[in-house]
Amino acid sequence: MSTPNADSQHTDSTRWGTKRRATLNVLAASLLAASPLALQADEEKDKKDEIQLTEPQVAACSTRYELVADPAPPPYAKDGKEAVRIGYGTNDDWGTKKNVEVLSPQEAGLGETALRVHYPAGTSAPSDQGEGGAGFYATINQLSRAERACLQYKVRFEPGFDFVKGGKLPGLYGGNAPSGGDEVTGEKGFSMRFMWREEGKGELYEYVVKDEEYGQSVGRGRWTFPTGEWVTIEQELILNDPGRNNGIARVWIDGKPILEQRNITYRLDDDIYVDGLMFSTFFGGHGKEWRTPKDQIADFADFRFYRQRG
């Protein structure tokens, strides 16, 4: 399920288990290697370990949780960097001065301001050639110590947007928000971003406890992003109890139930919670096959954060 080199994050991402099989001794390995029963057992284990997805059987989380934060970039900001820092209360950002501008409510067509992100021709991941897109980490104080949380936001790809091989989209994070091939041990944090893929196919792109070098691609193609119109993404995370793999992730697109993933291990430490927004958007992946062939833009707006009532 992993996609090698599908994620190469900015160097700031450094802020932000056991192996599946016990080691066999050499003699036992040689004796069992050719055994049909052993091969069958391995195949059955692999099948059991596959991610099982269903559709949510509950209403969208924005209807079940309490709205606690609705940040937006101020229209008076002198540039994208200032807009992000004031609007989302962060000092941890990249690409915002060069690649982000603020749209007025009239330009956004939503009744509130929006962020327009630029992806210059020839760019992909920030650590690759050039710096396309932008990112920031926003701790949402109203989510303090949240074990269940809900994020809703809107994205609009410009008409005729060329999706190439894929790119990153925002999602919730906890702890140090691992990305870029960071190891996820369950003791420091997790991240649950989204991606677009070829032809606009959508997916969850998650860094959780799993034997994967890079993030896991989950639910690819269960929905497709259109171009030239706003799409509402909704994400619910229910953290696991430490010591159990009972975490849950749910996704709705434009209010339609898309996927539910269970048996997730977000954490081994009970001091890890859902902390806020990992705004992360760029083409890539890493390498020329991921790079956008032309200047492109996407708009982001209406970020809302919810937590369980009571």
UniProtKB/TrEMBL annotation:
Coiled coil: none annotated. Keywords: Lyase, Signal. Gene3D superfamilies: 2.60.120.200. It comes from the Bacteria. This is Polysaccharide lyase. It comes from Modicisalibacter luteus. One of its GO terms (molecular function) is lyase activity. Residues 1-41 form the signal peptide. The keyword Translocase does not apply. The keyword Signal applies. InterPro entries: Polysacc_lyase_14. Residues 111-303 form the Polysaccharide lyase domain.
